[in-house]
Amino acid sequence: MELTTWIVVACVSLDIALGLPSGQKQHHFKRDVSLVELETELGYVVGRQETVLGKDLDVFLGVPYAVPPVGNRRFSRPKIIDPWKEPKMALELPSSCHQMVDTSFGQFPGVDMWNPNTNMSEDCLYLNIWAPSDRAKGETKAVMLWIFGGSFTLGSNTLDVYDGRILAAQGDVVVVSMQYRVGALGFLFLDDIGAPGNMGLLDQHVALRWVYDYIEAFGGDRNRITLFGESAGAASASFHLLAPSSRPFFKSSILQSASALSPWAVSSNETAIERSLSTASLVNCDRNAPTAEVLKCLKSASAQEISEQMWSIPGDLRNIIAPISPIVDGYFIQEQPLDTLKKGDVKNSDILLGMNQDEGTYFLVYTFQTLYNLTYEDRIVSQKEFRKALGNFIKNVPSDVVDLIAFEYGTAVNWHEGVVFKDAMDDVLGDYAFKCPVVDFANHYASHGNDVFMYNFKHRTSANPWPSWLGTMHGYEIDHVFGAPLNTSRQYTDQEKALSRQMVKYWSNFAKTMNPNLDENGHAEEIAWQSFTEENQNYIVLDADPVATMDTGLRYRSCAFWRDLVPPLTKAIQESVTCGSSIMSGSLCLLVFTVLSAWILGAGSSHMS
């Protein structure tokens, strides 16, 4: 495609939001910058040029990629944007999609940093693009396309923590972040073409198609697009690895702290319909009316009220993490992700993925506040509270299996009065909801001949506003991936700067070559990140001192417990049989005996962590 780029000669004074510590709203000041106008096949786009870490970037904020899903298009599948005649001014952050604003702890920075920082609107399907300016004609750079997390119900690409300028400058890549519909507006499912479910995932798909079709105008290489995301964003990225419709349009994926195997990542169609109808009732629509009438009512209801009321619906841990989520629709998600992985019907691609040391604590705080009226201060959790909490968290398994989980995770804890039991709770939540779904996804992907690179992020950043007992929390690797410690206005330690610099290098190298150790010129990293296989279980530990070390067997025993012991025992008990029952088949009894024996003699006694 023939490209023409104009640098507007005149400098103009613009309000520019520069990076501030996570959790703070952006402040603005005047600065002279040059405008940049690019010609794309859709029309002209006007952005601005900035200098970041000594490198010139072209920045485009709020580039539309889809027809606004407003009016009668609410709940509809997205449609890619039509060409425009007048230049699109891409100078301001776009609106955030409608969602609940979290006020659980008032204006506490650890919560407020994840709340939308721009006006909310249904007209929210936009991209932000940060592209190095030093592109010669015909030269293109690898593209990193970010999918934010937030339980499929929260989040925005406008958040300070997702500012892509430092990653683009330090990593020498084109960084793109997308908005997509969240909550009921993005995932309402009524088994009807008017509310088909998975609209938010299809928004992502259309954004991916847009980037593939038009990113060359911004200096990006359409054949080197890496999807990367965290939490629900990582689960989303893994759905695109499994979805035949998305696979042709990107090269590789980075999954941070979740996968499509996470128990909250897919709802049954029955659960999705029930939660969708419950949402309808909460906004004064008759859930028992014909589907067409329910949809008509929902389309006339307040978008913000729909987004907020959905959170009032009770549920188990899966619904606490993701009140509404994707479904197997037969259109984008063809079948249960585990079935797809077992068959190997996945994108043939290398992947990078991993987790944080304390994935469960963030959700522990919220759940304990609900159950026991605790706050985010340090609190004691007793043995009785632990068992009660497990019963509230994990409602999809029999009580006997919950007892087994309590035994497995409680044996290493000193139960005497006054001991903080949060570590065991953190491990249960973290393993069940985040860590083991990542490990299992890695094992399946490696089994099909793909190179897999696994990490465990252990460093608790000095900027973390939460109490220290929460540890290295869910989501707190993002600052380092996006290079926040390299922002000279931030007060990070030298060790944290070194860690962030190394992580930016690993992530951007992977986007360029599908190998975190090699850049596009063949230069190798000093600290080699060895690949993960089913046999070696290699992973890299990312910490401040030292920055990186290799280890093996990340959550090996725990994930074997959730994978090999809990499901078959749950199935056996749910069939309401016992080994002494006259209706108990010998094969089922043998299954229970075999599983327990294998656990005790095999994975259960493994030395791996």
TrEMBL record:
Protein's GO biological process: acetylcholine catabolic process; choline metabolic process
One Gene Ontology cellular component annotation held by this UniProt entry: extracellular space
EC identifiers of the protein: 3.1.1.-
Family matches, as Pfam families: COesterase
Signal peptide residue numbers: 1-19
Domain of life of the organism encoding this protein: Eukaryota
Top-level EC class: hydrolase
Catalytic residues of the enzyme: S231, E359, H474
Family (UniProt): Belongs to the type-B carboxylesterase/lipase family.
Protein name as catalogued: Carboxylic ester hydrolase
Source species: Capitella teleta
